[in-house]
Amino acid sequence: QVQLVESGGGLVQAGGSLRLSCAASGSTISMYVMGWFRQAPGKEREIVAAINRNGGSTYYADSVKGRFTISRDNAKDTVYLQMNSLKPEDTAVYYCTADRRPGIRINQGYDYWGQGTQVTVST
């Protein structure tokens, strides 16, 4: 079992950048596909990005392509989400997730979830 703790959220102006981190404990993340989801007020939770076990394959939602970058450091058991050119519509709680199954999944069937970190983008 793995525990996930997100950090790095906060308030930023539109056009700015934030870097989210997800620190894992209890198990090495090299065994997991890792993902980031987000949920805005009044909206359903949606996938933002995902990365396979060795970092060789990634997935991005169309809404963040070219602006966000997911990466992982298996030696540090940490996953990152670099968010650039932020927009007000990126405002949401961002969740780190881990999946034991191989292959990137874009639905919400991940095995483990963090508590989330708030990202607020002001105009």
User: Whole-number average pLDDT?
Assistant: 97
- Count of alpha/pi helices: 0
Percentage of β-strand residues: over 45%
The portion of residues assigned to helices is under 10%
What is the helix/strand order? EEEEEEEEEEE
pLDDT below 50 for ≥5 consecutive residues: which ranges?
Answer: none
Summarize the structure.
The chain has 123 residues and is mostly beta strands. It has no helices and eleven strands.
Break the fold down into its secondary structure elements and pairings.
Layout: E1 3-7, E2 10-13, E3 18-25, E4 33-39, E5 46-51, E6 58-60, E7 68-73, E8 78-83, E9 92-99, E10 112-113, E11 117-122
Parallel strand pairs: 2-11
Antiparallel strand pairs: 1-3, 3-8, 4-5, 4-9, 5-6, 7-8, 9-10, 9-11
Describe the structure in your own words.
The chain is an all-beta fold and 123 residues long. The chain has strands spanning 3-7, 10-13, 18-25, 33-39, 46-51, 58-60, 68-73, 78-83, 92-99, 112-113, 117-122. Strands 2, 4, 5, 6, 9, 10 and 11 form a seven-stranded mixed beta sheet that branches.
List keywords for this structure.
mainly beta, 123 residues, globular, seven-stranded mixed sheet
